[in-house]
């Protein structure tokens, strides 16, 4: 594929800065068309971002021979349907995370990818960001010796929109998102740790709705074991106070620890027998741009993207185990 002409389904907040501008800033890539449930919204988006074409429907966009690849930027409840539609039409897909509403949806997406031969990429973009690659480098260089365990804490105060019972954000409606903010944000932590340490062998979790603001769980704790035998415990709370807010991942080794964050990009801190090291690495303006660049290069035969359907489906499996959706 000499040039990748993207068609985008959905034009929500994530596309404004995090992802979509990247398509036009990468060599051999362009955002050629957009569609949304609201054509006026899609038209306004196209005007703001100078996108050449607006479509009445996802089907129309997918069938356009001028479109060579599809970016699915809708809520998880429609990821599988749109991705499968695109792959069956012979178009590679880059889909937002989490990959699908549940693990079974991921399995079906991967089945169609294998059946059609169409590549399926998933927006676990931390795998391509310099900040997280620095942690991977430290681990590769055995900066803290033999690994003993991993701990993570993500405590976030409720958002203003979480208080509006009559107009709740889709991220806290399980029938649209798959779960609550754990499904939306916790997947990033689980994925980057899987990128570092490999697949999970087992996962067990406990969850509750302690705030009563919305239908989904708002507090989760889990214990997991990687296939290597490394132990991991995680805690997530999305109704925490400002005073208890936290975004911390800590990797403990025989010779020290590595501490970093998943969302705040706080300085990476390494404490070992040789002293303390601090690494300050800012995220890119468009956080998905390194990942999208890897997808474009993969499609053009110039490299391989680190986030595909198989690894992404595994993260849905882990979350569904934690939330009791799988036995």
Could you characterize the architecture of this molecule?
The protein has 327 residues and is an alpha/beta fold. The chain has helices spanning 13-16, 39-49, 58-63, 79-88, 103-116, 130-140, 174-177, 181-197, 289-299, 309-322, and strands at residues 4-9, 29-35, 53-54, 69-72, 93-95, 120-122, 147-155, 200-208, 219-226, 231-237, 246-253, 256-260, 268-272, 275-279. The protein has 2 domains: 4-124 and 287-307, Rossmann fold; 130-283, 2-Layer Sandwich (Dihydrodipicolinate Reductase, domain 2). Helices cover 31% and strands 25% of the residues. The strands form 2 sheets. The chain has an 8-stranded mixed sheet with strand order 8-9-10-7-11-12-13-14, with helices on one face. A 6-stranded parallel sheet has the order 3-2-1-4-5-6, sandwiched between helices. Strand 12 (256-260) and strand 13 (268-272) form a beta hairpin. Helix 5 packs antiparallel against helix 10 (309-322). The protein is globular, with a radius of gyration of 20 Å. It starts with a strand and ends in a 5-residue tail after the last helix.
List keywords for this structure.
327 residues, alpha/beta, Rossmann fold, Dihydrodipicolinate Reductase, domain 2, 2 domains, 8-stranded mixed β-sheet, 6-stranded parallel β-sheet, 10 helices, 25% strand
């Amino acid at each position: 594929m000499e040039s990748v002409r993207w068609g985008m389904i959905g034009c929500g907040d994530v596309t404004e800065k995090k992802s979509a501008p990247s398509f036009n800033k990468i060599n051999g890539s362009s955002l050629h068309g957009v569609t949304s449930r609201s054509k006026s919204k899609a038209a306004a988006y196209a005007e703001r971002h100078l996108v050449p074409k607006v479509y009445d429907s996802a089907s129309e966009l997918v069938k356009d021979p001028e479109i060579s690849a599809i970016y699915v930027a809708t809520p998880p409840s429609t990821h599988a349907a749109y991705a499968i539609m695109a792959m069956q039409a012979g178009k590679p897909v880059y889909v937002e995370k989490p990959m699908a509403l549940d693990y079974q949806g991921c399995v079906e997406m991967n089945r169609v990818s294998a059946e059609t031969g169409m590549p399926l990429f998933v927006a676990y973009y931390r795998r391509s960001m310099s900040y997280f690659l620095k942690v991977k480098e430290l681990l590769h260089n055995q900066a803290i010796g033999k690994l003993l365990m991993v701990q993570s804490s993500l405590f976030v105060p409720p958002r203003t929109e979480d208080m509006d019972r009559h107009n709740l954000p889709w991220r806290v409606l399980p029938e649209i998102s798959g779960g609550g903010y754990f499904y939306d944000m916790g997947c990033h932590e689980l994925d980057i740790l899987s990128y570092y340490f490999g697949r999970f062998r087992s996962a067990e979790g406990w969850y509750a709705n302690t705030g009563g603001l919305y239908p989904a769980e708002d507090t989760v704790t889990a214990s997991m074991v990687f296939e290597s035998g490394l132990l991991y415990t995680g805690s997530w709370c999305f109704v925490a106070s400002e005073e208890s807010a936290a975004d911390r991942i800590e990797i403990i080794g025989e010779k020290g620890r590595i501490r970093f964050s998943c969302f705040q990009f706080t300085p990476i801190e390494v404490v070992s027998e040789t002293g303390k090291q601090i690494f300050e690495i800012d995220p890119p303006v468009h956080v998905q741009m390194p990942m999208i660049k890897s997808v474009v290069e993969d499609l053009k035969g110039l490299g391989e993207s680190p986030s595909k359907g198989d690894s992404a489906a595994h993260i849905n499996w882990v979350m569904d185990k934690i939330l009791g959706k799988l036995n």
